[in-house]
Amino acid sequence: MPNDEEKNKTIAVVTYPGFALLDLVVTQTVLDRGTSYRTVCVGERMEPMDSDTPMAVIPEKRLEEAPDPFAIIVPGGGIASLEPMGNKRLINYLRFAEPGAELVCSVSTGAFVLAAAGLLDGRRATSHPAYSELLEKLGVNYVEGYSVEEGKFLTMAGVSSGIDTTLELVAKLRSEGAAKRAEAIIEYDPQPPFGAIDWSGADGDGLKQILDEHRAGLEQALAGRPDLYQKLFG
Amino acid sequence: MATEDQNHKTIAFVLYPGLTLFDLAGPLQVFTGVSQLAPEYQTVVVGERAEPADTDLHVKMIPTHTFEEVPHPSVLLVPGNRTSTFKTMGNEVLRSYVRSATETAEVAGSICTGALILASVGLLEGRQATTHWVYYKILEEFGQNTSASGGSRTASLSPHLASLPE
Fold first, then answer.
1. What is the pLDDT, as a whole number, of residue B72?
2. What is the pLDDT of residue B144?
3. Which of A32, A53, A54 lies nearest to residue B57, judging by beta carbons?
4. What interface predicted TM-score (ipTM) does this complex get?
5. How many whole angstroms separate alpha carbon B84 and alpha carbon A115?
């Protein structure tokens, strides 16, 4: 049975200050309910870390404690995803763990963290549509889509695509039956009460102002990576 | 600080050890967005003590406030789990908070098996309620009329709560 093999393998969800809590929760929950892989929230320190909600979290393990994950998932966090691009320990962890990982995933703006580690160079990838142009500045071939797969790199557009894509991942890793079962356990049966999203408003028009507001903080966060700062703001 | 001012509304999520984080994170994310657009809505996570609580995903969560600090939220929401929810049904401090906060709240709600906690303190007696499909028979034993549904559906429940008349 593949289940025993799965139990010994880790799926590391990599957190950083300001990360989108729901990105972590949906991917970990769907993989937990649908497979036997051990999902682990990892962070630089096992200390309280702010999320994009009022609630802080404490990661289960430090980065160093998950040195050889089967899969890596980096959640989004909007503008907060740009700061960890300058976090040497986190970027080094991704570079160190990537060669041995069979799957490298991001949700939404988590793609920026993978890009900062050089893992998406020239690759097709998706992110939040508002960040498409900014992501392209880092040498990523942005593709509009719910999720984009290139080799072992799987990038997802956002929270709700994170649920769908992770369910598809369960079908691929285990079976379609397992994915259907996971759907039933989490009672996933979306019926948005106010209908579908009008994507026409989801362009990058508002992003410039947000970037300007965070410019000083980002300059500081990316002090060790002038190459990235130059690409984003130069 | 959580406020009881009439112009302010506090949405309080109840945190307890071992809860299903998905139940909490979905509506929490929606209400956090609401708070950003309409600052008169404050979203808080309340726990018995201001210390980290474990969750089903082994990520520890830190409540933003204690029960004592938010005695009268406008909206009270209780998430679920399996065995952890059953254990929590016996926690007198939490039970008494859920009971007293509900008395003054405009809306008291539950997600998934959180309904069992509301039911266990008698708040759902004779009322229509829903829960996870695995658990609805247990909920019925508390005397509710149930229909099975919930879980990820809560992400769609949240906007309804947010649009309640003031």
1. 97
2. 55
3. A32
4. 0.91
5. 39
